[in-house]
Amino acid sequence: MTQNQILSSVKNAELVEIRRNQMIKGAITLFKEKGFHRTTTREIAKESGFSIGTLYEYIRTKEDVLFLVCDAIYEQVHERLEAAIDLENPSVTNLEKVIESYFYLMDEMQEEVVIMYQEVKSLKKDTKEYVLQKERDMVGMLEKVIVTCLPHEISKQDAELMANNIFIQGHMWGFRRWVLQKQFTLKEYIDRQIHYLMESLAIDRTIAKDKEA
Amino acid sequence: MTQNQILSSVKNAELVEIRRNQMIKGAITLFKEKGFHRTTTREIAKESGFSIGTLYEYIRTKEDVLFLVCDAIYEQVHERLEAAIDLENPSVTNLEKVIESYFYLMDEMQEEVVIMYQEVKSLKKDTKEYVLQKERDMVGMLEKVIVTCLPHEISKQDAELMANNIFIQGHMWGFRRWVLQKQFTLKEYIDRQIHYLMESLAIDRTIAKDKEA
Amino acid sequence: MTQNQILSSVKNAELVEIRRNQMIKGAITLFKEKGFHRTTTREIAKESGFSIGTLYEYIRTKEDVLFLVCDAIYEQVHERLEAAIDLENPSVTNLEKVIESYFYLMDEMQEEVVIMYQEVKSLKKDTKEYVLQKERDMVGMLEKVIVTCLPHEISKQDAELMANNIFIQGHMWGFRRWVLQKQFTLKEYIDRQIHYLMESLAIDRTIAKDKEA
Amino acid sequence: MTQNQILSSVKNAELVEIRRNQMIKGAITLFKEKGFHRTTTREIAKESGFSIGTLYEYIRTKEDVLFLVCDAIYEQVHERLEAAIDLENPSVTNLEKVIESYFYLMDEMQEEVVIMYQEVKSLKKDTKEYVLQKERDMVGMLEKVIVTCLPHEISKQDAELMANNIFIQGHMWGFRRWVLQKQFTLKEYIDRQIHYLMESLAIDRTIAKDKEA
DNA sequence: AATGAATGAGACTTCATTCAT
DNA sequence: GATGAATGAAGTCTCATTCAT
């Protein structure tokens, strides 16, 4: 579905998926280590377990690999996030759980997140748009959870701001790890961040409670 | 002072500073556009207004330019931040003012910030350490303001967390501009972020007020 | 066998040998003309009949070419010298024949010898050691012939000295050609050098004859 | 006198000589270490104790430095050799003394000799001719000593051959030092070489003695 | 489909030489 | 006479991409 933006000379769709997944896995390993620009296509091919010739049977340019990687990363975040969200029973507790899940996920995907921060800009306009849209979707999911789970009204704008804040606080755990992970365990980090997020909604909650009353 | 880590064949220190500033200016322009890796040393020389030979009279390698750029950016942030901080008269209002100043600064330096996010990783161990230390210093300044201006006690850990949050919320305005700057004016963004930051300290403030009483 | 010290990205060993031989041939042509330092890698590639990219598929650095050339030259000398030596029937005549063959060989390889004299010093420690060892081997072969073919005893030291003298008298024909080849035909040169070499062993020979008697 | 082939913008002849001697000294130091091609003009200037600009006041091109160096080396050999030769009282002992002196000189000037072997070829036609002529002169001096000191007649050709042999046996001590200087002390080397040289003239000497009788 | 040898544009960097001060 | 900053041609090497097998 999503990978179809990238042309391949190989017709067998199943094979294309297999090879591209090998490629994504190999590329992420390398990008984590040395970044996109310092990684060569030969290295990607080798790490993926096939030859440079074969690599180019499945992509057209090196940038295609970057796109596949970015796409795969967001795809993974999307899946996991979706699985964590349950809008059937909205509640503040529920909101907290989603945020907690998201933070745990970001801990797992620290290095992938760093790749995104560093390399997305290297994508060409079109593919960049596409990847950024996926990112927006993800923030949108958080935003929806906020709006749905809060007991009181919150402006669209404020909801978006909170969603963005949560979003990057998740990333921050990864890309500022050399500072944060010295001072906090993951659990502490999550607890304090959620604590402050909830605090920042306090007054409104009071008002909301008044409304309820 | 800070540039002295990079060797130059030119002896005249004053001239070195002039040329390096030209170089930093030119490089930032180009890095904003196409990033460090896609910018060639020839382009940097040309944009700086001198020949490739002259460029290499003032640096040893291309990476030196990146270091100079990163160093200059943090230097600028440091100066401006320092100027904005007044610890003589600590008060919550004062804290708000510092945060506001910082956000305005981050608006001005959006693209520089993006460069840092994308390219710092390309620095070699030593220079990276140096640059990251400067970053830590900056967060440290925010942390100190928080501790000093809050009317109540706050744990070292929490102060650090808040400082980090503020720090990256400033960056976020720049590197997520395609989202945020569609929904917020700068003033709105600053207002809402400060609003929520203050809220998140609410309970404590109440306690503090109780103490005062 | 000997070329294996130099890494190649190309796996096919047979092809590596073919290309390297092209390269050695091309490089020797150019080194004769302008020396190692004044010859560019592009020129070597062109003279060898392939592109600069291909050149670097078979070597890592320009110095590798020099090593390959030095190695090939000594390899050739070695083979030819070995073929000329017959230790089954040691005799003074036999010794004279070996020396003669060696001088003829040095005549053929004049320019290669000049290359060695001028450029070996440019090799890095390791490869230089390797090449010099090969040279020692060659002198060792001459030394062995001397010891074996002389009818009388000769000290190890003297044998080594004679071998070294013969060795460089062979070279001298090439690197002092602008003097010697004006005054001597090759045959004359060989005759007179052998004459004097034999004379210098005269007394000993007499002693030897006495012994025999 | 000899340096006058090289143009200088500086008029003061005395100064020119001073500066050029500094230059030659500095350059030899560097050429010993890394050869002509790997030494930069900047390094030569620095080692000589003045600036690159000044260097170019006294020469026109880098090759001029090489010429000055080669010229100076032969000049020195020439002077020393001349001092050692005394044709007033020709005798075999006298010949031996000259050869001995020459070998001692070559021991002192080992590295300079290596420079000559490696770099003369880099000189342009004209200057090369000039330097080679000086070399021929030196061999000529040896030749003359041989002819004069030998008690018997020797053909012009043979005298030249012997002179050339002696000439390069002197060099050999330096450029094959890693072999010879392990096996011989300087004294041993000289003794054995002279021994064999004298032996090679043995028969003739006998004849000569007959004549005398 | 898979391979890997071949290609060459283009990157970084050096360094001999000049010339204004 | 001395200086050293400026220049840019030219060198080495890399690597994305192609294509014959």
UniProtKB/TrEMBL annotation, chains A, B, C, D:
It comes from the Bacteria. The keyword DNA-binding applies. The keyword Membrane does not apply. It holds the Pfam family TetR_N. PROSITE patterns: HTH_TETR_2 (PS50977). Keywords: DNA-binding, Repressor. Residues 40-59 bind DNA. Residues 17-77 form the HTH tetR-type domain. This is Transcriptional regulator, TetR family. It comes from Virgibacillus subterraneus.
